[in-house]
Protein backbone atom coordinates (compact mmCIF):
# COMPACT_ATOMS: atom_id res chain seq x y z
CA UNK A 1 0.00 0.00 0.00
CA UNK A 2 0.94 3.62 -0.55
CA UNK A 3 -0.69 6.53 1.23
CA UNK A 4 -1.15 9.99 -0.24
CA UNK A 5 -2.86 13.27 0.63
CA UNK A 6 -5.55 14.94 -1.47
CA UNK A 7 -6.57 18.52 -0.86
CA UNK A 8 -9.78 20.25 -1.87
CA UNK A 9 -11.30 23.66 -1.33
CA UNK A 10 -14.79 23.99 0.08
CA UNK A 11 -15.87 27.59 -0.17
CA UNK A 12 -13.01 29.32 1.67
CA UNK A 13 -11.79 26.26 3.62
CA UNK A 14 -9.04 23.84 2.56
CA UNK A 15 -9.69 20.22 3.56
CA UNK A 16 -7.34 17.27 3.10
CA UNK A 17 -7.75 13.52 3.30
CA UNK A 18 -5.35 10.60 3.48
CA UNK A 19 -6.02 7.88 0.94
CA UNK A 20 -4.46 4.44 0.60
CA UNK A 21 -3.92 2.81 -2.76
CA UNK A 22 -3.43 -0.91 -3.16
CA UNK A 23 -0.72 -1.29 -5.77
CA UNK A 24 -1.75 -4.72 -7.09
CA UNK A 25 -5.37 -3.75 -7.83
CA UNK A 26 -5.19 0.04 -8.03
CA UNK A 27 -8.09 0.24 -5.56
CA UNK A 28 -8.11 3.42 -3.47
CA UNK A 29 -9.86 4.09 -0.19
CA UNK A 30 -10.25 7.21 1.91
CA UNK A 31 -8.76 6.62 5.37
CA UNK A 32 -9.97 9.89 6.92
CA UNK A 33 -13.62 10.22 5.83
CA UNK A 34 -14.74 12.15 8.92
CA UNK A 35 -11.66 14.36 9.23
CA UNK A 36 -12.24 17.97 8.22
CA UNK A 37 -8.88 19.79 8.43
CA UNK A 38 -5.85 20.52 6.24
CA UNK A 39 -3.30 17.69 6.57
CA UNK A 40 0.40 18.42 6.20
CA UNK A 41 3.18 15.90 6.90
CA UNK A 42 2.49 12.21 7.55
CA UNK A 43 4.42 9.01 8.29
CA UNK A 44 3.49 5.33 8.44
CA UNK A 45 4.27 3.80 11.88
CA UNK A 46 3.63 0.56 13.78
CA UNK A 47 4.33 -1.61 10.74
CA UNK A 48 1.68 0.18 8.67
CA UNK A 49 -1.05 -0.06 11.29
CA UNK A 50 -1.03 3.68 12.03
CA UNK A 51 -0.22 6.95 10.33
CA UNK A 52 1.04 9.97 12.28
CA UNK A 53 0.25 13.34 10.74
CA UNK A 54 0.10 17.06 11.38
CA UNK A 55 -3.02 19.04 10.49
CA UNK A 56 -4.37 22.51 11.04
CA UNK A 57 -7.04 23.03 13.66
CA UNK A 58 -8.20 26.62 13.84
CA UNK A 59 -5.11 28.82 14.15
CA UNK A 60 -2.99 25.98 15.57
CA UNK A 61 -1.65 22.74 14.17
CA UNK A 62 -1.88 19.45 16.02
CA UNK A 63 -0.41 15.96 15.80
CA UNK A 64 -2.82 13.14 15.07
CA UNK A 65 -2.71 9.36 14.94
CA UNK A 66 -4.78 7.48 12.36
CA UNK A 67 -5.66 3.85 13.09
CA UNK A 68 -5.64 2.55 9.52
CA UNK A 69 -7.85 -0.52 10.08
CA UNK A 70 -10.49 1.40 12.06
CA UNK A 71 -10.13 4.67 10.08
CA UNK A 72 -10.19 6.42 13.45
CA UNK A 73 -8.30 9.68 14.00
CA UNK A 74 -7.10 10.61 17.49
CA UNK A 75 -5.60 13.99 18.42
CA UNK A 76 -2.26 13.52 20.19
CA UNK A 77 -1.78 17.21 21.01
CA UNK A 78 -4.07 20.14 21.72
CA UNK A 79 -3.93 23.82 22.61
CA UNK A 80 -2.91 26.97 20.77
CA UNK A 81 0.54 25.87 19.59
CA UNK A 82 1.78 25.24 16.08
CA UNK A 83 3.57 22.00 15.23
CA UNK A 84 5.63 21.36 12.09
CA UNK A 85 8.55 19.36 10.77
CA UNK A 86 7.24 15.95 11.82
CA UNK A 87 9.92 13.27 11.60
CA UNK A 88 10.00 9.58 12.54
CA UNK A 89 13.11 7.65 13.56
CA UNK A 90 14.57 5.06 11.20
CA UNK A 91 13.31 2.20 13.38
CA UNK A 92 9.84 3.78 13.70
CA UNK A 93 9.99 3.88 17.50
CA UNK A 94 10.21 7.65 18.04
CA UNK A 95 9.05 10.89 16.53
CA UNK A 96 10.23 14.50 16.71
CA UNK A 97 8.61 17.78 15.72
CA UNK A 98 8.96 21.52 16.13
CA UNK A 99 6.46 23.27 18.39
CA UNK A 100 5.92 26.98 19.05
CA UNK A 101 3.22 29.12 20.56
CA UNK A 102 2.09 32.74 20.64
CA UNK A 103 4.48 33.43 23.52
CA UNK A 104 6.89 30.51 23.11
CA UNK A 105 9.79 30.29 20.65
CA UNK A 106 10.13 27.25 18.39
CA UNK A 107 11.53 24.20 20.16
CA UNK A 108 12.14 20.60 19.12
CA UNK A 109 10.19 17.91 20.98
CA UNK A 110 10.70 14.14 20.82
CA UNK A 111 8.79 11.14 22.15
CA UNK A 112 8.43 7.39 21.86
CA UNK A 113 5.54 6.64 19.52
CA UNK A 114 4.01 3.88 21.65
CA UNK A 115 3.86 6.19 24.71
CA UNK A 116 3.24 9.67 23.36
CA UNK A 117 4.73 12.03 25.98
CA UNK A 118 6.72 14.72 24.15
CA UNK A 119 9.77 16.15 25.91
CA UNK A 120 11.52 19.32 24.81
CA UNK A 121 15.03 18.50 23.56
CA UNK A 122 16.14 22.03 22.63
CA UNK A 123 16.02 25.42 24.26
CA UNK A 124 15.61 28.74 22.55
CA UNK A 125 15.89 27.97 18.83
CA UNK A 126 16.55 31.21 16.95
CA UNK A 127 17.35 32.12 13.37
CA UNK A 128 20.65 33.88 14.14
CA UNK A 129 23.20 34.43 16.86
CA UNK A 130 25.89 36.96 17.75
CA UNK A 131 28.21 38.11 16.32
CA UNK A 132 26.37 37.75 13.00
CA UNK A 133 22.95 38.85 14.23
CA UNK A 134 22.34 41.29 17.11
CA UNK A 135 18.68 41.71 17.97
CA UNK A 136 16.44 41.10 20.97
CA UNK A 137 15.88 37.37 20.58
CA UNK A 138 19.51 36.68 19.71
CA UNK A 139 20.86 38.65 22.69
CA UNK A 140 18.29 37.03 25.01
CA UNK A 141 19.32 33.57 23.77
CA UNK A 142 23.01 34.40 24.19
CA UNK A 143 22.42 35.55 27.77
CA UNK A 144 20.47 32.36 28.58
CA UNK A 145 23.27 30.21 27.09
CA UNK A 146 25.94 32.08 29.04
CA UNK A 147 23.98 31.77 32.29
CA UNK A 148 23.39 28.04 31.76
CA UNK A 149 27.11 27.60 31.10
CA UNK A 150 27.96 29.63 34.23
CA UNK A 151 25.74 27.23 36.22
CA UNK A 152 27.77 24.26 34.97
CA UNK A 153 25.64 23.08 32.04
CA UNK A 154 27.17 22.06 28.75
CA UNK A 155 25.90 24.45 26.08
CA UNK A 156 26.07 24.01 22.31
CA UNK A 157 24.90 26.74 19.97
CA UNK A 158 23.87 26.00 16.37
CA UNK A 159 23.24 29.17 14.43
CA UNK A 160 22.80 30.43 10.92
CA UNK A 161 25.74 32.08 9.24
CA UNK A 162 24.92 34.73 6.64
CA UNK A 163 25.59 33.20 3.20
CA UNK A 164 27.88 36.06 2.17
CA UNK A 165 30.23 35.03 5.00
CA UNK A 166 30.43 31.35 4.08
CA UNK A 167 30.70 28.89 1.23
CA UNK A 168 27.15 27.70 1.92
CA UNK A 169 24.11 27.86 -0.36
CA UNK A 170 22.58 31.29 -0.85
CA UNK A 171 20.00 31.04 1.92
CA UNK A 172 22.18 30.12 4.93
CA UNK A 173 24.45 27.58 6.54
CA UNK A 174 24.99 26.17 10.01
Main features:
174 residues, mainly beta, 11 strands, 4-stranded antiparallel sheet
Distance between the termini: 38 Å
Helix content: under 10%
The assigned structural class equals mainly beta
**β-sheet strand percentage:** 35-45%
Q: How many individual β-strands?
A: 11
Taking all Cα atoms into account, the compactness measure Rg is 20 Å
Biggest β-sheet strands, sense, barrel? 4 strands, antiparallel
The arrangement of helices and strands along the chain is EEEEEEEEEEEH
Instruction: Look at the structure and give the mean pLDDT.
Output: 84
Structure description:
With 174 residues, this protein is mainly beta. It has one helix at 136-150, and strands spanning 2-10, 13-21, 28-30, 39-45, 50-57, 60-67, 72-75, 82-88, 94-101, 104-112, 119-120. The model has no long low-confidence stretch (mean pLDDT 84).
